[in-house]
Amino acid sequence: MNVVIVYPFQISGSSWNRFDVVFVGEGFTASEEDVARFETRVGEAIKYLSVSPYARCAFNFYWVRLVSNESGSDHPLDSSLGCKDPPLNSHFGRPGWNEWDLMVEPDDRQRCSDLVNSIVPNWDVIVVLVNDTMYGGFNYDDEHFLTVSVGTGFQNVLPHEMGHAFAGLGDEYGDLVDWETYYPIEGGEPDNPNVTINTAPPLKWEVDPAVPIPTDLTALRLKPEFAGKSDAELERTVGLWEGAARVDRGAFRPQFDCRMRSEFADFCKVCTEAVSAARTAACAAPILEGQPQPRPLHCIAGSTVRVPLPPCPNCLTAVDEETLARLRFSRSDQVRVEIGPLPGVEVVKIIHREGWLETVVATGHPMPSDPSSPAASQPIFSAEFPVEASGHYYIEFSPVTCEVPRFSFSVRVFVNGVSVRLL
Ligand SMILES: [Zn+2]
Ligand SMILES: [Zn+2]
């Protein structure tokens, strides 16, 4: 591999409660055109992972660009496209596989993850972005390693492949073999939340008792409960539709269609809920004043905790629109934050980040919250700063000891002297 360029690109929080995604550029040369294309594609990838059911706050994004001698990837099934030598030897399919199965072989995956380990050791998933015009992608079970072509279908394939890595979703499309033939050893109920082989109660996901099992359009049309519904409505009925996990028989999916089944469909209800649950777990919100259930954080001495400012709207499910609007900072707003209690924390910083350029705008030590009785009171940190026109703010601190292994803290935000109170 020739040259490697690394940028931490968009960091939304502490690595230990975010899903750290490393985009690796494959088949991009050092030409100005390819460099620009890679940066554009990374920006698009982040956009596709920032819309529902995903949310940007759940991820930290990094990129690593491998420099290729030639643009593009290998097409062993189509010799007319010539032979390329991309750094990870990625290729579109191989004999016995489909051309859209965009693969990297085990030795090359190992080389790639060794490299990523050495620069972003806390990575959760590696996404190899392959510079080619062809449609394709692949996910390696249990490896958290994805390949996605930045060509045709990129915006649809990436959320699908990320569904495997982020929420453990299974494919909902069929093939030409039955469950036992395709999975001769594994058998049994799959771990994926959206695929089941069990048709007897209790079912894996909630199904209305009126829905026939197995579920199909013919059976639904015969039910008086569904009289008058269009086929499109019936196809959205949650049931047990046969055909999933790359087999046509013996495995069932929740709805007729889903992004885990076909390119243009939205995620089904079960997949949407699974991604939302994973997102909420990954996207630990700061604990805000008045929030009904403070979220405890595990203290890891020496780790860095970053809390976004203003707090992430995706995490604040119980906040009304008006409060959210007041939480957005505008240029030259004077912002004051108070955060605490912070036991075992010596230094707190407020960081302004623009692109990947970071500036510390305030720093200090947590002080007793009640100066008249310092021994009995908890250490809190407060700071005031004017808002820049663009960029993001974070509160950052590193617990140096873990007197309290799990602790909750609250953040109070004052904009121009007015306390922003949450519900
Ligand atoms: Zn898939
Ligand atoms: Zn689904």
Describe this structure in words.
It is a single chain. With 423 residues, the chain is α+β, with helices and mostly antiparallel strands. The protein has 3 domains: 4-167, Collagenase (Catalytic Domain), CATH 3.40.390.10; 179-281, no CATH class; 297-420, Sandwich (Jelly Rolls). It is built from 8 helices and 21 strands. A 6-stranded mixed sheet has the order 1-3-2-6-8-7, sandwiched between helices. A 5-stranded antiparallel sheet has the order 16-17-13-20-21, with helices on one face. A hairpin with a 2-residue loop joins β20 (410-415) and β21. It is globular. The N and C termini lie far apart (53 Å). The model is unreliable at 287-296 (pLDDT under 50). Bound molecules: zinc ion (ZN) (2 copies).
Compact description:
With 423 residues, this protein is of the alpha+beta class.
Map the helices and strands.
Elements: E1 4-10, E2 19-28, H1 32-48, E3 59-67, E4 91-92, E5 102-103, H2 106-119, E6 125-130, E7 137-140, E8 145-149, H3 154-167, H4 179-182, H5 217-221, H6 231-235, E9 241-244, E10 247-253, H7 269-282, E11 297-298, E12 305-309, H8 321-327, E13 334-340, E14 345-354, E15 357-364, E16 367-368, E17 379-386, E18 392-399, E19 406-407, E20 410-415, E21 418-420
Parallel strand pairs: 2-3, 2-6, 6-8
Antiparallel strand pairs: 1-3, 4-5, 7-8, 9-10, 11-19, 12-18, 13-17, 13-20, 14-15, 14-18, 16-17, 20-21
The structure holds zinc ion (2 copies).
One zinc ion (ZN) binds next to helix 3.
